[in-house]
Amino acid sequence: MSKRILIVGGVAGGASVAARARRLDEKAEIMMFEKGPHVSFSNCSLPFYLSRVVDDSNALVLMSPEQFQKQYRIEARVNSEVTKINRKEKKITVRNLNTGEEYEETYDTLVLSPGAVPVLPKSIEGIDRPNVFTVRNVVDIRKLDEYLSERGIQDVAVVGGGFIGVEVTENLRVAGRNVSLVEALDQIMAPFDYDMAQILHKEMLDHGVNLILSDGVKKIGEDSIELQSGRKVAAEAVVMAIGVRPETGLAKDAGLEIGETGGIRVNHDYLTSDPDIYAVGDAIEVYNRLTRKPSRLALAGPAQRQARAAADHMYGIPHNNKGVIGSSVVRIFDLNAASTGLNEKSAKAAGIPCDFAYVIPADKVGLMPGSHPLHFKLLYEYPTGRILGAQAVGKGEADKRIDVIAAMITMGATLEDLKELELCYAPLFGTAKDAVNHAALVGLNLLYGRFRQVPVTKVRELVERNEFIVDVREKNEFDRGHLINAVNIPLSGLRDRLDEIPKDRPVYLHCRSSQRSYNAVMALQNLGYDNVVNISGSYLGICCYEYYQDRVTGRKKIVTEYNFT
Question: Is 99 part of a structural domain of the chain?
Answer without folding.
Answer: yes
